[in-house]
Amino acid sequence: MARDKGLEALLSEDLQDERGLSEKAMFGGWAWLAHGNLLCGARHDGLLVRLGKDNDAWALQTPGIVPMISGTRRMQGWMRVAPEAYGDDALRRKLLAAALVFVRSLPAK
Length: 109
Hints:
There is one protein chain. This protein is an alpha+beta fold. It has 4 helices and 6 strands; from the N terminus they run αββββαββαα.
């Protein structure tokens, strides 16, 4: 699958000052992890962001943000964000901030 270098650059810039993050190729795209826990990812088909179960209602009310579906299963707390949504700098940063709060609440791997 093709990676989205533009989205990767946006996320790298947004996350550049965050401590404890690592990056690696994953799921046909590029992923960011906080202390070993998946935080977000950039793929050719959009941004994947982890808000956590029951932390996503506000995001789902935003056009261009839908639950992530894997096969036929909805992945609780995971959002797929379309370009028209992640292209909004303030919204993308709000999503990343919410993801950081959730993922940093998890035990390190």
